[in-house]
Amino acid sequence: MQSTTDQNDRGTSSGNSPVVMWVLLFVSSLTVMAGATITTSLPAMQEQFSGMQNAELLVRLVLTIPALFILTFGPIAGVLIDRIGRKPVLLSSVILYGLAGGSGLVLSNLYAILAGRALLGVAVAGIMTTATALISDYYSGQDRSRVLEKLAATFRTDYYHVWTSTDFIGAEVCAATKNCYAFGGGFMEGLL
């Protein structure tokens, strides 16, 4: 049974708007950035936390833990978008993505960083599930194929640009605020 909110989230007339398509492409591309952009930060994290027991394993988990939470919370996100609607879940997931994705800029505890990355996985699960449902709602046939082709191209382009720019931007922000750690640059993707 569909809720009233869910029925209001759907409609092909909104899908015909180029703005809607680009918003869906943008939020969908966030999911690719969740893991890859911090890879350049891992050696600095390893050095920062070298005195901790199991630091090598825990630092590697920083990269992989979002995937576990995506897998776990994807089905829950599906239930939520059917119960409370697609747009509220998408908006709250994007906000959580920004907060959790950027949390590594200011957190100094490896366990807290892992918790932030876990929350990032929850956010990505919400974004992936909702964006896919909205694309399916708004587009059909050849239009859907075109949007999905643009989505694939967006993933490739955004991955390269965000991955190469987050360390530079992160280093500048860290230098200006003097409030983050040597590995913080890779966490800028949450705030971009």
Short overview:
This protein has 192 residues and is mainly α. The protein has eight helices and no strands.
Give structural notes.
The chain has eight helices and no strands. With 192 residues, it is mostly helical. Helix 6 runs antiparallel to helix 7. It starts with a helix and ends in a 15-residue tail after the last helix.
Structural class: mainly alpha
Mean pLDDT, all residues: 78
Q: So what's the overall shape?
A: elongated
What about the largest sheet? Answer: none
Strand content: under 5%
**Roughly how many Å is the radius of gyration?**
18 Å
Number of strands: 0
- CA distance, first residue to last residue: 37 Å
- Name the helix and strand elements from N-terminus to C-terminus, one letter apiece: HHHHHHHH
Number of H/I helices: 8
Helix content: over 70%
Low-confidence stretches: 1-13, 158-170
Summarize the helices and strands and which ones pair or pack.
Blueprint: H1 4-9, H2 12-15, H3 18-36, H4 42-48, H5 55-83, H6 86-102, H7 110-138, H8 141-177
Helix pairs in contact: 3-7, 3-8, 5-6, 5-7, 6-7
Task: List the keywords.
mainly alpha
